[in-house]
Design brief:
It is built from six helices and eight strands, in the order E-E-H-H-E-H-H-E-E-H-E-E-H-E. It folds into two domains: about 5-10 and about 15-105, Arc Repressor Mutant, subunit A (Orthogonal Bundle); about 110-165, 2-Layer Sandwich (Dna Ligase, domain 1). It has helices at about 20-35, 40-50, 60-65, 75-85, 105-110, 130-145, and strands spanning about 5, 20, 55-60, 90, 100-105, 110-115, 120-125, 155-160.
Length: about 170
């Protein structure tokens, strides 16, 4: 792997394609400029932290990981909202105490989530091509019914390796 790349992992040890940080920052800068926003130091820091994350992160996790960047809670939360608006970050709702955030899949590649019903941890995972082909068939059915499909998500609910012994 080249320097300047971040490996996103699905939590199972497999590694999808790395995210090239240089390309990522260029793309993020373009999206922000198109929305008449500046690529500020704190926005840059939030993107760096999310790129280094191996899964969707809560605000406290982002702040903890961003300690070296000097991220303030109010600034990080405001910037996350703005980055969501311009399609750089995606909010992952798992129905627990904290929302989780990750780079938008248009930047990292399409994936799905494993959601722990006990602790709320969310890990990324990829499904086989056959599964995605089946989803495309469902999209065709939805379109035939007059529904405009923008995206899809598939979350598996269960217990993570840390929690499954706590049943």
């Amino acid at each position: 792997m080249s320097e300047g790349s971040v490996v996103e992992t699905d939590g199972s040890g497999s590694h999808p394609d790395p995210v090239d940080l240089e390309d990522l920052h260029v793309t993020v800068g373009r999206r922000l400029r198109a929305a008449s926003m500046r690529y500020s130091r704190s926005r840059f820091s939030v993107v760096e932290v999310l790129a280094a994350g191996c899964r969707p992160l809560t605000l406290p996790e982002i702040l903890s990981a961003g300690d070296g960047y000097g991220l303030a809670q109010s600034s990080a939360y405001r910037n996350l909202g703005e980055l969501v608006e311009v399609g750089v970050v995606r909010r992952v709702e798992a129905g627990y105490d904290h929302s989780r955030f990750e780079l938008h899949e248009s930047l990292t590649g399409h994936h799905h989530h494993l959601v722990c019903v006990e602790c709320g941890r969310v890990d990324d995972f990829e499904v086989p091509d056959e599964f995605e082909a089946g989803i495309e068939g469902l999209v065709g059915e939805a379109v035939a019914r007059g529904f405009s499909v923008e995206s899809h998500r598939f979350d598996m609910l269960g217990r993570c390796s840390s929690c499954h012994g706590n049943v």
